[in-house]
């Protein structure tokens, strides 16, 4: 929980979830935090699960087994799964297609085809253990984990459903040796253009940072987000507000 951001109650749709619930895609997208090239970075969820209640993680480099192993061996301290369900093309557009509106300077989406895994999506809801209270975190949070390309997935999710996320996370997105085909940090590159050209709005917040501490990330990658609200604990990831 970060006190510099609004602390909100868990929405009714989330508290009404049962193990047999269908995917409420519009509710999941509303006020969500979208994190492409996420890997299994739990820092945004650990710090922000009372500020955001729906997290969407996207990374084309990990399999379903990788996800299962990570949850089994690490998971989220103080939480347990109450729902885990596979998502198919009837619920979201899930494929390995290239983003729309590419320019030659953006790069080739198939550059790291050897690293790209078979697409899948899993929707999970985690509930706080009964012996813990609000000081530990939210009662529940939602995590939609998608193995797919980050820009095309943003377009498929938000543009197709006529909405935008509340926040986007760009945290060491792996340009170059990290097998990301394009530069998510570039203010004129395909991901930034996709976010800012969304006719249904742009995110209010940007999470930006990585290893190296605050001094390395004392300026944001996208100039539209010029006001630093805070850093997440002692990490090098800051929260920036859009002017």
Rg (CA only): 17 Å
Task: Flag low-confidence runs.
Answer: none
Q: Mean of the pLDDT scores? A: 92
Number of strands: 9
Helix content: 10-25%
Give the biggest beta sheet. 9 strands, mixed
Q: How many DSSP H or I helices?
A: 6
Strand fraction:
15-25%
In short:
The chain has 243 residues and is of the alpha/beta class.
Q: What would your notes on this structure say?
A:
The protein has 243 residues and is α/β, with parallel strands linked by helices. A nine-stranded mixed beta sheet has the order 3-4-5-2-1-6-7-9-8, covered by helices on one side. It is built from six helices and nine strands.
Give the secondary structure arrangement, pairings included.
Blueprint: H1 12-15, H2 25-29, E1 33-36, H3 43-48, E2 54-58, H4 64-73, E3 79-86, E4 120-128, E5 140-147, H5 150-159, E6 167-171, H6 190-196, E7 205-209, E8 225-231, E9 238-242
Keyword list:
alpha/beta; 9-stranded mixed sheet; 243 residues
């Amino acid at each position: 929980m970060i006190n510099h951001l609004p602390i909100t109650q868990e929405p009714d749709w989330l508290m009404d979830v049962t193990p047999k619930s269908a995917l409420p895609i519009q509710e999941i997208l509303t006020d969500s935090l979208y994190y492409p090239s996420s890997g299994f970075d739990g820092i945004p969820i650990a710090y922000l699960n009372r500020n955001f209640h729906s997290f969407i993680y996207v990374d084309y480099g990990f399999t379903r087994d990788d996800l299962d192993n990570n949850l089994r061996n690490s998971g989220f301290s103080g939480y347990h799964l109450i729902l885990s369900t596979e998502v198919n093309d009837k619920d979201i557009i899930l494929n390995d297609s290239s983003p729309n509106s590419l320019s030659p300077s953006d790069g080739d989406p198939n550059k790291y085809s050897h690293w790209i895994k078979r697409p899948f999506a899993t929707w999970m809801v985690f509930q706080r253990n009964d012996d813990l209270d609000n000081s530990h975190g939210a009662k529940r949070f939602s995590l939609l984990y998608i193995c797919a390309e980050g820009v095309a997935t943003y377009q498929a999710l938000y543009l197709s459903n006529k909405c935008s996320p509340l926040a986007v996370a760009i945290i060491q997105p792996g340009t170059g040796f990290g097998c990301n085909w394009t530069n998510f940090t570039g203010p004129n590159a395909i991901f930034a253009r996709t976010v800012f050209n969304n006719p249904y709005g742009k995110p209010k917040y940007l999470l930006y940072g990585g290893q190296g501490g605050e001094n390395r990330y004392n300026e944001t990658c996208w100039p539209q987000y010029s006001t630093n609200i805070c850093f997440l604990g002692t990490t090098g990831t800051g929260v920036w507000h859009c002017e």
